[in-house]
Design brief:
- By secondary structure, the chain is mostly beta strands.
- The protein has a domain at 1-58 and 65-75 and 90-134 and 148-184: Lipoxygenase-1, CATH 2.60.60.
- It has helices spanning 16-19, 60-65, 216-222; strands at 6-8, 13-15, 25-34, 44-53, 73-75, 83-84, 91-92, 98-101, 107-109, 125-130, 140-147, 160-168, 173-179, 189-199, 202-212.
- The strands form 2 sheets. The protein has an 8-stranded mixed sheet with strand order 1-13-12-3-10-9-8-7, with no helix packed on it. Strands 2, 4, 5, 6, 11, 14 and 15 form a 7-stranded antiparallel sheet that branches.
- The longest helix has 7 residues, at 216-222.
- It starts with 5 loop residues before the first strand and ends with a helix.
- 39% of the residues are buried.
Length: 224
């Protein structure tokens, strides 16, 4: 009997270790399609922001042991290389494929997609996350969706139907999905969710669904 993906709603938490013991690598796909008529085609983008804990600046392992997963976050190592989006510098994989990636290729962003997908096998934008290779000081991997020039074009996330899918890369099986609710009437950026470190080698995913009308900059300034 095939395993069904877990359907998340806003505010829910998905324990990756409980669902898939020993899970090491996942693919995260953000798919969208336009549902509001009378607007130009929206170009949505998937952004990944890797965060450490301000409270764990000197002893990250101690912070993990003490369960400080709710401590205020900051961009890991205060280095913009840990923010991946459509305009990040390109690097190449061993096979020569051009991608966006964190310094050690712990996270790989497969690039810009301007149409999103039709939810029937056509993926939007994707990132691959290797939890096994993640530096100890990484406490959170935040997943955001932004609309390119959303404010200038008067576009927001209410004009799109969007879903986030999480797939185990060891067997290409989808393990969780989160359909965004239509409660972003002015928001051009949404923190869709976040992978939170719960132990030295364990993670959970939180469906957040928090929007901002000020775009990606709102979140980056908060985490700087």
């Amino acid at each position: 009997m095939s395993e069904l993906a877990f359907n998340l709603s806003k505010g829910m938490t998905f324990d990756l270790e409980k669902a898939r013991p020993g899970l090491k690598k996942v693919r995260v796909a953000l798919k969208w399609k336009k549902v509001k008529q009378g607007i130009s085609e929206a170009d949505a983008d998937l952004t990944v922001v890797v965060l450490g804990s301000r409270a764990a600046a000197e002893s990250d392992s101690a912070a993990i042991a003490q369960g400080q997963k709710d401590a205020q976050r900051k961009i890991y190592a205060s280095d913009p290389a840990w923010v991946l989006y459509y305009n990040s510098p390109q690097t190449t994989l061993d096979d020569g494929t051009a991608v966006k990636a964190t310094p050690g290729q712990e996270i790989v962003h497969w690039g810009d997609n301007r149409t999103g997908g039709d939810f029937n096998g056509v993926d939007g934008e994707q990132v691959d996350i290797n939890f096994e290779g993640m530096p100890e000081g990484v406490m959170e991997v935040s997943i955001l969706g932004t609309i390119y020039e959303g404010m200038e074009r008067n576009q927001n996330w209410n004009a799109l139907e969007a879903v986030l899918e999480i797939t185990d890369l060891t067997d290409d099986r989808m393990i969780a999905r989160y359909e965004l609710e239509h409660d972003f009437p002015t928001d051009t950026a949404v923190q869709v969710g976040a992978f939170i470190r719960t132990g030295p080698a364990t993670w959970e995913f939180q469906a957040i669904g928090s929007g901002s009308r000020s775009g990606l900059g709102h979140f980056l300034s908060y985490w700087s």
